[in-house]
Amino acid sequence: MASAFWNIGKIPELRNRVLFSAGILAVYRIGIFVSTPGVDRVALGKAFANLGGTLFGIFNMFSGGAFEQASIFALGIMPYISSSIIMQLLAVVIPTLERLQKEGEAGRRKINQYTRYGTIVLSVVQGFGVANFLVQGPGGLQVVDNPGPMFYFLTILTLTAGTTFIMWLGEQVTERGIGNGISLIIFAGIVARFPSALQETFTFVSNELIQPIEMLVLLAVLLAVVALIIFFEQAQRRIPVQYAKRLVGKKTYAGQSTHLPLKINTSGVIPPIFASSLLMFPATIANFVPGGYLDKMQQFLRYDAWFYNTAYVLLIIFFCYFYTAVTFNPVDVADNMKKYGGYIPGIRPGKKTAEYIDRVLSRITFGGALYLSCICVLPTILMHKFDAPQSLASFFGGTSVLIVVGVALDTVRQIESHLITRHYDGFAGAKGPRIRGRR
Asked: What is the tens place of the pLDDT at every residue in 203-256?
């Protein structure tokens, strides 16, 4: 492992990419502590001590504590994620967007531009909701010095500019750094909350609010969850594929046996992020007009409410299938196999192969969706069974651990691919499992 990290510094391109990503994340973390004008950060911090079980507490976790700090990055990257969801859903029903998706790089750039415009619109809407939330006085405390139209204008403008800047930072990491920029920003925000969660854990143990036996159980749960996430994120269903002997020009290529790897969780950490983002948006809208049905909706969308968890699980399952369908097309895979003389033993090439792959993918995706759902509702179980606070429950399981482990695995995988491409040993080392396809 140490030699693998040492090898990173030997490759100029990889070293520059890693340093660039680290620099961008440092800029993001510095921006967390730049406050929005007109907000009392001390009073807001006290108010958030009573908001841990609400969606605003979850919103604060995804923003890396920026919401609690009344930061210019308080909205985080969630408006961009919501805009991406809307664009992907619209591409299914609007033929123009569907054609853009099939136009390759040019179409992708056009859709990304529409996504950016949608991010700005959603940031304005959510910025108004946040401003209204601050003016109302969360937790019964006054956190705004001079509420008025100018405060609303400055807050909306500041939060929209902050989200746009975060979106630009994420795109820069994706293009010039290592890993997925948006996922790394969320990863950095969650990891930054771990030290405070550890300190809170020791405080609860020292004050005997959590018994040592319960603490050992929580630690065992954390280790089991991490092991389970690693197992499922790397699990595959391998479909055997046989290639017939081919004649290309004057050369004859012998047939070979290989396999088509289908991941159990093809969508990665995207479904929980999408589901959380969609559930946060109504909570922001509910702050526009206090009272009536909107207050009831806020109660339903509490983090520990049955309605929230039911909707969360259903949305995770939906986005698992939806994102898998967007990123993996069985028809194209079957056509490529047929083009190069490949076939699945016992299955006719072409349409039958596509139907077989789709059937297998649908079954394993359901298992992956159930795995994601169980991990994401685990904090609620810990809160009810062990009376653990929401911050501790999220630390020992749930979406936060899933995102941290999933993004870390994906980033390490990309770094290892750079090392292996340049004939360096990856993190598995020379004695690790042999990379398939290399002798």
From this structure: 777 777 777 787 787 788 888 888 888 898 888 888 888 887 666 666 666 567
* C-alpha to C-alpha distance for 253 and 244, rounded to whole angstroms: 9
Give me the pLDDT at residue 438, please: 45
3 state DSSP class of 69: coil
In angstroms, the CA 376 to CA 391 distance is: 14
CA R_g for the chain: 24
Residue with tokens 């006290």: 46
Query: Are the CB atoms for 79 and 128 separated by under 8 Å?
Result: no
Please tell me the distance from the alpha carbon of residue 159 to that of residue 173, in angstroms, as a whole number. 21
Residue showing tokens 């750094």:
177
Cα atoms in the Cβ-side hemisphere of radius 13 Å centred on 310: 4
3-state helix, strand, coil in the chain (%, to 5): 65, 5, 25
Q: Cite the beta strand spans of 57-148 per DSSP E.
A: none
Residue 292: count of CB within 10 angstroms of its CB: 9
Q: Quickly count: other Cβ atoms within 10 Å of residue 213's Cβ.
A: 8
Contact 280, 55 (CB under 8 A): yes
pLDDT digits (tens, 9 = 90+) for 86-102: 887 788 778 888 788 77
Q: Which residues 6+ apart lie within 8 Å of 326 measured at CB?
A: 88
Q: What is the Cα–Cα distance from 300 to 315, expressed in whole angstroms? A: 16
* Helix intervals (H) in 177-303: 181-191, 194-206, 212-234, 270-285, 293-300
Sketch out the chain's domains with CATH numbers: 1-192 (1.10.3370.10), 195-397 (1.10.3370.10)
Query: Distance (Å, rounded) from C-alpha 362 to C-alpha 236?
Result: 13
**pTM of the shown model:** 0.76
